[in-house]
Amino acid sequence: MKKLLASALAAALLLTSCVTAMADSTETISGKSYIVGAYEIEDGGHENSDPLAFDSDVNSLTVEYDYETMDEVTTGRYSEDAKMIMIYVEGFDTSKLTGDISITIDGKDFDADDLVGAEYQDRMGYDADAGILRFPVEATKSGYSDTYVIEIESDDGDGNTVTETARITLRLENESEYKNAETATISRISGDGVDAYIVGSRIYLDYASSSTDDDALLTITFRDENGDLFDVVTWYYNAASDGNELDEQGLFNASDEDGDVDLNGLKLDSSVGYFKVYAGTYDYFDDDNADEDYFTNVYFTLETSSDIYETKEYDVVVRTDVYETDPKGIYFEESSITLDIGESYTPNVLGVATGRTVDAVIEPGTGTSRNVIDIEDDDTIIGTQEGTAYVTATYEFISSNNRTTTYESSSMKVTVTDEVYDGESEEDTDDDTTSTYMVTASTLNVRTGPSTSYSKASYQLTSGELVEVVDIANGWAQLSDGNYVSAQYLMAVTTSDDGSATTMYVTCRTLNVRTGPSTSYSKVGTLSRGTAVEVVGTYGNWAKLSNGYYVSLSYLSA
């Protein structure tokens, strides 16, 4: 009887053990922190060895990147190329996630095999031995924030599962600085060693000989979209075309007035830039059209502290054995000018029949006192003493049969004064109300009148300075001291009279906070959508907050 009872008990224990072994088990892991890194994916699909961002024991990461310098990579056989970042999340439980692995991100299956054709396909996925998950995210121009819910599930095949859930928040911020895109025009072009002129959308280069190998230099005067000469520090670069980029040698390369090329660019000299011509290097007459791209869609680029200027595109036409056309006479583009004492001016002399600039010699007119003006380098007038003077121009035209004809222009009147421009008397301006503006250019010239033909004042303004403006007309702002500056480099400033603040709310997902009213100022933090801020003033399209920092006014609402 005892043996029978013992056998029954043993069988019961064995049955209980089998039932227990056959029961499913489920374990969930969550609430952990991880090592998180972000790496730029470069051309070819490999990550840059230097992380964009990296931190340990975290669940969120701010990733700053320069969108404009990143490579576009192939994201799949049937998807658009994009700029991508590989995210590393390390710290998943390697002791428990040991069976068959399945991964979801935001509820969607994550499988590297699904991204056929992506350059980085073999770089992404889960490393079970190291507990590291790699997955790509797109870098965008605007940046964004997102939280990724990652679930890694392990199944041992016997119904026992372990699921680890991680919530990783990424804040992607594009640190590229963008400038306003503006249009520049060419108001004057001339050549040394080549006859250069513009007709419509073509730049003609006429060589008197059969060779284009001779050194030639272009002198080009640029104006902004308002027709004004550039009155702030402005850089010019190599002309770009279908055959070359700005930083590469092309048909026209930025140089100084002696023809010394600088691939990094140079500063305009009174709105004038110089370009070395390489028509001989790139063969315009090549029967195979191998160099044709260098002569098509050529454009010039200028840059100030806040703007990028581009001219329209030109096709360049090169001609040889083309002798200069007889101008049939010459004349000054302007019949009179006003100079301040010490101010210089180079007049433009044009051919009567051609309408093109000629390299004329400027001389004092008959009876003009040399006390009033001086002539420098045979082409530049300098005001030396108050008074009135007259100048004439002479030009020697050499025909194809070497006959020389000398042309002389009529006189141009030159008035020299030591008084600054006073469009209004002091009595007229004393009671005028003024408006506050802030200077946006790195250096802004101050002039005695509303034009670049007026002399510079004894001081300059720098970025961030506040000025009081009496009036703005024809693109020029009159300052409270009677001097003038170009209005395009000023930003309107408004503040409350009583120092009170206006409550406004952030309307975008993430808003950068900066130390000044421009993207050129450093970033000190971010604000999220719905955050209330106290605005104490505006600077153009920027709002000044009560704490002294600035945000874009475009992303605030009352």
What does this structure look like?
By secondary structure, the protein is mainly beta. Helices cover 4% and strands 45% of the residues. The strands form eleven sheets. Strands 34, 37, 38, 39, 40, 41, 44, 45, 46 and 47 form a ten-stranded antiparallel sheet that branches. Strands 1, 4, 6, 7, 10 and 11 form a six-stranded mixed sheet that branches. The chain has a five-stranded antiparallel sheet with strand order 3-2-5-9-8, with no helix packed on it. Strand 14 (195-199) and strand 15 (202-206) form a beta hairpin. The relative contact order is 0.08.
Features:
558 residues, 10-stranded antiparallel β-sheet, 6-stranded mixed β-sheet, 47 strands, disordered N terminus
Tell me the distance between the termini: 92 Å
Number of helices: 2
Largest sheet: 10 strands, antiparallel
Question: Averaged pLDDT, please?
Answer: 84
Number of strands: 47
Percentage of residues in strands: 35-45%
Structural class of the helix and strand makeup? mainly beta
The radius of gyration computed from the alpha-carbon positions, rounded to a whole number of angstroms, is 36 Å
Give the overall shape, derived from the CA principal axes: elongated
Binned, the helix content reads under 10%
Uncertain segments: 1-6, 12-22, 420-431
